[in-house]
Amino acid sequence: MSLAAQAPRFRATVILTLFAMVAAPAALIIYQSFLSAPFFDESARLSLDAYDFILTDPEFYRALWTTTLYAVGMVVVAVPLGGLLAFLITRTDLKGRGWLEPLVLVPMFLSSIVLAFGYTVAIGPSGFVTIAFRSLFGSAPWSIYTLPGIILIGGLSHVPTVYLYVASAMRRLPSDLEEAARTAGASVWRVSIDVTLPMVLPALVFSAALNLLLGFETFGIPLVLGDPNGILVLTTYIYKVNTIFGAPTYQVMAAVTVFLILITLPLVFVQRRLLRHARRFAAVGGKGARTNLLKLGGTGQAIALSIIGLWLLVSVALPVGGVILRAFVENWGEGVRLSEQLTLANFQRVFELPSLSRGILNTILLAAIGGALAVAFYLLVGLAGHRNHGRTGTLLDYSVLLPRALPGLIVGLAFFWLFLFVPFLVPLRTTLFSLLIAYIIVGLSYGLRIIQATLLQVAPELEESARTAGATTFRTWRDVVIPLVRPGLAGAWAMIMIVFLREYATGVYLMGAGTEVIGSLMVSLLTSGAMDQIAALSFISILLTAIGLTLAMRLGAKIHD
Amino acid sequence: MTDLVVDNVQKWLGGLQILSGASFTAEKGRIVALLGASGSGKTTLLRCIAGLEQPEIGVIRIGGTTVLDDKGKVALPPEQRQIGLVFQSYALWPHRTVFENVAYGLKLRKASATDIKTRVEAILEKLGLGHLAARYPDQLSGGQQQRVAICRALVYEPKVLLLDEPLSNLDAKLREEARFWIRKLILDLKICAIMVTHDQAEALAIADQVLLLKGGSIVQSGTPLDIYSRPETFYAADFMGTNNVLSGRLVGTPGGDAAIDCAGLSLPGTWKDRAAPADPDAVRAVIRMEAISVSPEPSAGSASFDVEGCIYLGEKWEYRLKRGDLRLRAQGHEPLSAAVAHCRIPASATWLYNP
Amino acid sequence: MIDRRQFMLASAASVGALAGSLPARAEGVPAGYPADYKAILDKARTEGVVSVYTSTDDVQGRPIVEAFQKAYPGIRVDYNDLGTNGAYNRIISEAAAKQVGSDVVWTSAMDLQMVLVQKGLAEAYKSPEMSHLPGWANFSDTLYGTTVEPVGILYNKAQLASLKLPQTRAELLAFMRDNKEALKGKLATFDPEKSGTGFLFFSNDARTRPDTFELVKAFGATEGKTYGSSGAMREKIVSGEHWLAFNVIGSYAIEWAAKNPALGYVLTSDYTAAFSRVANLSKGAPHPNAARLFLDFLLSAAGQSALASAGAPSIRTDVTSGLNLTRLGEMAKGNLKPIPVTAALLEATEPKNRADFFRRWKEALRG
Description:
The complex is a heterotrimer of chains A (561), B (355) and C (367). Chain A has 561 residues and is mainly alpha-helical. Chain A has two domains: 1-47 and 341-561, MetI-like fold; 58-327, MetI-like fold (Orthogonal Bundle), CATH 1.10.3720.10. Helix content of chain A is 75%, strand content 0%. In chain A, helix 3 packs parallel to helix 8 (159-172), helix 5 crosses helix 25 (531-554) and helix 8 (159-172) crosses helix 10. The longest helix of chain A is centred in the first third of the chain and has 34 residues, at 58-91. Chain B has two domains: 2-229, 3-Layer(aba) Sandwich (Rossmann fold), CATH 3.40.50.300; 234-353, CATH 2.40.50.140. Chain B is globular and about 75 Å long. Chain C has 15 helices and 14 strands. Chains in contact: A-B, A-C. At the A-C interface, helix 12, helix 15, helix 16, helix 18 and helix 24 of A face helix 3, strand 2, helix 4, helix 5 and strand 9 of C.
């Protein structure tokens, strides 16, 4: 058969494989939710018991309500602040915005379990800062273990996601639209409200929808900070429901997940719509992309820098500083002099314990090599979907969206079962490939977006000229598209690496001896309360992320889409 | 009354001076064109007037108000300058209808709703856009968008209307129409307008006064007729029109029997440069293409040239002529059939300049 | 202050030396073991690996693993800390998929492991060490108690300096009632909803002590906080966020107090419950002989010494490094009440009983 005819077949193969990888865990979870016992149990039969249980469990409603409050609260905190930061950094002559930009994104790259742990040790009731503050002023008037505290922290840590979308919308906004308003007689702030804000509104709404989604699926922050006061959200309810029963209650976990999907799936579709709409909206307007920065003036500079400084202090300096300090001490508290407590014992122990040191190695392997494999896979998927307007293109779109609606914890659990019960997958279970496959699915929509953005940078004419010169679709990809996107792929690799480094939920149920990863080890160490090791691992995780980020910058990774 | 005074405006970008002391004035009911090649600083000058760029040195007064004075430390922001600016891209706000786009300036000036309605409708009607008021910009054609942009800049009666390459995004036919109606509109409204363009034909057709810019300073300023027919520097002469440029040696005196020797041919000419000859061995001659008369037969004072080719341009023919190393472009109404043609170049049309 | 790590290394080394001397006697068969044990030993060496599913974290499990590997070089230990529920869930999932991955199951969830036995997922095996164990620590030659770990109180000395420290359960109750205001938010305990260990402690208390829910009620009245692990409570006591935690794993408390002068512990003298980490062999274990070797080693004097030195007191009376059953009995003034390894553990796991317990727990907490 001719090469030309192979492209559709290649596309169909890749897309159907992807669809199977995405649909299998989702289907398994949905099926499990309608059973009376674990699906592998002989006594399992079709039943609505699980739904019956959660719908009559006041804890579930409380968790649902808390989750809703959390998600909405997060949006209320993150969207205005993220929008403001994006405006200040992209549209004004704010001093130092060049180096502020990467700094503003830092919370996004840290695993939320590390962040949350950092907050407990920094500003928890007996955190370093709290104690210092109390000794200076008598009392520390905050509590991070309350729902408002958790919401605030969740919101602050999600500012970068908003920033990213709004900043890129602002960069795309041609400056003459703003200048036209100024020459018509509008002041700087008037222009911001009358022109800039409406023009980036789609991006704001999109990031609000995204944050709402992330809020519903949030796990790390409530897991750590909600624990002392028994504040449960849906994901931690899933995680804890096991213990409440004292036996595996997979059907209940699955039923809660189905609820979560029912909430998140519509959000995913809203996002998809908004994204399409936003693109069309931004395409209109002038072509003059020369940005003219709004002058802030002395007072403006001071206010803007204080806002950013305060936010950075709370969102980056406090948790990261907390982790770093805690990693080097074993004892602290009121009346303990920290300088006398400095020790490397926490790290020594981590490196002595085979599972923890293996976890560090595995995390690096999974991020570096696994990240490269993931990029290769996303590239295959990206090519299969590249300028593919057929029916498989639509199937691809939905396959990419579905995992967005599933929490990583559950994807990990579903893959654990798949690797256990699907014969040809069995040999992979005890290898890092099991985690890699789950990670690829969890990171799918993010990774694919990076790849697609890179692919779209190749002007259609370049491909069309290759086709008219006689190249098949394959040859065009090989000779034109891939060479042109190669630099972009290196950046994509670095970004995926960071995503894999910070992942923690997926491995919770999936990892076993030999396949430990840092993030999930921290979740399991939380159950036994081994805070010394958690601190050391958090520190190592921050260090690895910093290395990954440096690498990403070197490779010219596009953080903005 | 002088509505716009620009005095010695200088601006640097990094270490590079992009405006080196531009000065001019403009009056109500007149159109000034800032003409120049790309990089000549014309757009920067316009943006300095608008307040979108900050020159380091200079004074700008609009309608009697000083909006910029480096010594008096005045630098009004754009919104306080009483100007209207039409962008090259039109910069229509995609989230507002045509009506809302145009009404915006009036809204900012706290006009009453009824006032806004009458004035916006009046100007839209005037420019033939009345039926499009409720549309969004992306539902308009390029020509309609341009007219909306002009309405938006004019509706609040600014002291000065600034136009940045207003015609460059239009089709050729539309552009010719627009030259005419834009000029008529501005004259009717008796406002002061400054237009930036790189297209000499556009500048000549629309403006009352043309400022030719080069490297951030004004090379020559004058009426379109002055600029086209009495250029005072080689740059100005060569920038305008379609020309033959010859390099050679000056013979005779600039005041009287000046001529240029080039490629073995001595052409009598007229010294037009505002400066005296700097180096007689290196002068340039500029001959407008239309100034050369070509005939198959020799006549008094004519020189013979080989015919390299004839190009049919519709309303005329262009001739490519050659004599030794000397090449000329000329035009006429008939094709040249013979291998040799005879050119007559009047001394008054052979303009001599320092290079 | 002895650095814990050095302490552990030192004890691990001494235990290793002790264990290392044992196999030399009868071609590797430990002293006192039947002669046919050699067959198990040889097969175990061929298997070369033993996979342990456990809830004992790596820090605490390390000495026993190292001691085992010294005693039986060439047999690798795959040590999986999965938590109590994690281990249980994984075992039943793997059993259903017919891909048993565990050889030995060794967790602190006495009740869950009893369920595994009941489900037929455990293999019976008469350990040669059986005679050294108390009778209550062996269920049908299948499930063995390997430690005896008291349930106790951990507190911050500085914060409690002005209050009279309770020494009995009765005093604890009075302490909470009398200092309700002063102790507001300052007390902590295990959360039976979040932790299987917490559930084991409180359900056992509820079964054996009539004042249990009185205690919970008084605790609730002080707005105390509940946690999923002893380590989490230690963190909060060290930092001064909480002053006192009760029903924590007392053997940990003893060790922490030895290491950190700011901390103190109490084993209540009128009643101190104790639980055991229990071990069984998996049915269909991939390495059945290495599994036996590991279980026997866990129960042996050498293994028990290693455990005790890592803070898990020995269930034997003849092991003297660290704490043992006898010593703990003295410390609890003769009122140490270990939870026996019997089918009675299943009672609490009955859904109806669980629901009943949690209903009462919540009622008491709310006051």
